[in-house]
Design a protein that fits this description.
about 425 residues; globular; disordered C terminus; GPI mannosyltransferase activity; mainly alpha; 20 helices; transferase
């Protein structure tokens, strides 16, 4: 039986490698199309952030600071990653993001295999990321979400393997690159409790060797990378690359349900406004982390936390959707949901997004005052996301402890 499992594993490995090659080829085609499109169209295919990355890399190549480029508000190491844009070709960074995209798909496959899913199930779920049109579009336009995708998935994969010091190191790097993965600290920490779904609150909180290693790895790597940024670029990094994101208030139109409120109150100081917008987000993210923060349900914990964090955030852009779409394939095998219902929910989410984009187009490109319609569509999109989360949680299958033992025995055999 073990030999059959191994043979099946090898066959699936060859199959996923073929699909990864195809997925990478598709992305290269889109990159080439983007180059052609940008030469002949006023509305560019390449994301504005990619130009900011490249300009930051240009400053670094001259021995300067990436923060000398106006609106560069990312980790300085992103500019270092984009040096091939200057030294080789403008599209080199997009190729890097495409490679990372494919790596994320492979990591999804490996995590599901570790969870005890069948080869075919793991393969099909990995394709949900690899062939997702939104994912392909974001990476080939030059957005860096693929970097975060790989960092988050490596963190999760290592945590499930109980390689907790290394998992913490990648978690700290993730938080350094973008602050949002800090919400994963709680469920990952709780998932390392010896008793699965422990009813004892003390048992959940008390440290063990795996929890201690996770905390040490996270704090150490975050401090090292952040300290290097401060050492190289001083207060400029602290203000532009770190503090800016903690105090950011964006009054431009975006998917956030709070955008119009922040827009009309931009010139006023309203006591308690920040608490009213941040409070529900904090409470729900924490509650979901505690509720599903165990080894069996860790995938759901991270997905539900991310969906709530994005939906309740004060600023929501289309790139943020990838933060939870990345984790969706990891919970699909545990959903007791018909294909019809899944299809209807997907169509509903897509319609809600397109409905928002329609008035946004007239505001941005036709200069019509459509702020109120955009706000109403933001409310509809908010409700759609919350309904989607409720449907997913209600369809989620809770597994008994014996399945946990069997899945780990199965994963050890395959390895």
């Amino acid at each position: 039986m073990v030999l059959m499992a191994k043979g099946s594993r090898f066959g699936s490995t060859e199959k996923i490698q073929n699909h990864l090659a195809l997925g990478f080829f598709v992305r290269i085609v889109f990159i080439l199309y983007g180059e052609h499109h940008d030469q002949f169209n006023a509305l560019k295919y390449t994301d504005i952030d990619y130009h900011v990355f490249t300009d930051g890399a240009r400053e670094v190549s001259k021995g300067g600071s990436p923060f000398d480029r106006h609106t560069y508000r990312y980790t300085p190491f992103m500019a270092w990653m984009m040096l091939p844009n200057i030294l080789m070709h403008f599209t080199a960074g997009k190729v890097i993001f495409s490679i990372l995209d494919c790596m994320a798909s492979r990591l999804i496959y490996e995590i599901l295999m570790l969870d005890g899913q069948s080869n075919m199930t793991a393969l099909r779920c990995s394709y949900l990321w690899l062939y997702n049109p939104m994912v392909i579009g974001v990476s080939t336009r030059g957005s860096a979400e693929a970097v975060m995708a790989v960092l988050v998935l490596i963190t999760l994969y290592l945590a499930k393997l109980k390689v907790t010091l290394l998992s913490g190191i990648f978690l700290g790097i993730s938080i350094h690159f973008k602050l949002y993965p800090i919400i994963y600290c709680l469920p990952i920490y709780l998932s390392l409790t010896n008793e699965l779904r422990s009813e004892s609150k003390l048992q959940l909180i008390l440290p063990n060797r795996h929890k201690i290693r996770l905390v040490i790895g996270t704090i150490t790597s975050f401090c090292i990378f952040t300290g290097l940024g401060l050492y190289m670029y001083g207060e400029q990094y602290l203000e532009e690359g770190f503090l800016y994101h903690l105090t950011r208030i964006d009054t431009r139109h975006n998917f956030s349900v709070f955008f119009y409120l922040l827009y009309i109150t931009a010139d006023y100081h309203i006591p308690g406004l920040s608490l009213c917008t941040f409070g529900p987000q904090l409470v729900l993210v924490t509650a979901l982390g505690i509720k599903f923060g165990n080894h069996l349900d860790l995938n759901l914990a991270l997905f539900s936390q991310t969906l709530v964090f994005v939906t309740f955030n004060k600023v929501v852009t289309a790139q943020y959707f990838l933060w939870y779409l990345l984790l969706l394939p990891l919970i699909v095998p545990r959903l007791d949901m018909s294909w019809v219902k899944a299809g209807l929910l997907s169509i509903l989410w897509f319609i809600a997004e397109v409905s928002w984009l329609t008035p946004a187009y007239f505001l941005e490109f036709q200069a019509y005052n459509t702020f109120v319609p955009i706000w109403l569509e933001s409310i509809a999109f908010f409700c759609c996301n919350m309904g989607l989360l409720m449907a997913i949680i209600s369809s989620y299958t809770m597994l008994p402890y014996c399945h946990h033992q069997n899945s780990h025995l199965h994963s050890r055999r395959l390895r």
